[in-house]
Amino acid sequence: xxxxxxxxxxxxxxxxxxxxxxxxxxxxxxxxxxxxxxxxxxxxxxxxxxxxxxxxxxxxxxxxxxxxxxxxxxxxxxxxxxxxxxxxxxxxxxxxxxxxxxxxxxxxxxxxxxxxxxxxxxxxxxxxxxxx
Length: 132
What we know:
single chain, alpha/beta, five-stranded mixed sheet, two-stranded antiparallel ribbon
């Protein structure tokens, strides 16, 4: 577990890259938040008590999450958010497309079985439709 010092002697759990990506995939983040130091517009995982700016490293207190005690979330910009959402969507779409194509090929194989006149066994045609 990673911790970060927010004040002398005060340490909180730090929610890093992995937790941030998971929160983005689940649409579980808040923002925009203005960094208390550089004024950059940021987003942060839902439930964090502080947002750490990736540009200036300042920790901004999140008033709306003060009672959740959720540690320090890694801040991310709108550009980061769009890129991570696009990456997640592309990966999911590619995976779904592959699964659909595989299912179509399996169905094609099942529908094109025929009895071999020589052996009486079921064989499968070797010609499959091209992957889209």
